[in-house]
Amino acid sequence: MNEFLGNIFTDGGELILDSLIDNEVVKEIPVIGSSINIIKGLKSIRDKIYLNKVKTFIEKLGDIDDQQKQKLIKESKKDLNSRVKFGEALYTSIEHSDSMVKVEYLAVAFEAFLSGDIESDDLRLICHSIKACFTDELVDIVECDQVKSDLKYLVPSGLAETVYGGITTHGMQSGPNYGLSPTAINLREAWRKYGNKG
Fold this sequence. Notes:
Blueprint: H1 2-21, H2 24-28, H3 32-39, H4 45-61, H5 66-76, H6 80-96, H7 100-114, H8 120-132, H9 135-143, E1 160-163, E2 177-180, H10 182-195
Antiparallel strand pairs: 1-2
Helix pairs in contact: 1-4, 4-7, 6-8, 7-8, 7-10, 8-10
């Protein structure tokens, strides 16, 4: 079994690892850069899957300009508590993603953050929502103009919110309605702006 894992890792894993170790973006993201360096000594299928997710994240993100690099460096040099939250949110979201679509959405949200369209707190909320949502519902929320998913089931993920109506003519409060949350709107706008690159 160990020889099998070694062969899998050598047949592409080493190439992925080498390309990620030298990637400037990966180096600047707290936790992710450290995890890549730790993986250098490990050779499991789980490690290879994680490397492929990081590779997809970087490819979807594409090149970042000097201003975006400076923002990332500034973010990584904030106080320890803020830096750890920022890095851990991305790391755990990438690691626990059950589809590459989720990794692509994370990259798009990260690009929106680097471009100043969303704040780091919004990025962490998006990371949580992506992690907590089923992929099919997530695609529906992010990419479809007319959402077909039942939003009441998406409230726990943070992609929908409960909206209470006013009082009816009989003095009763009307039942709750559901709408997209600010987190979902931020992710949809990020996808429309950064997600459909060549």
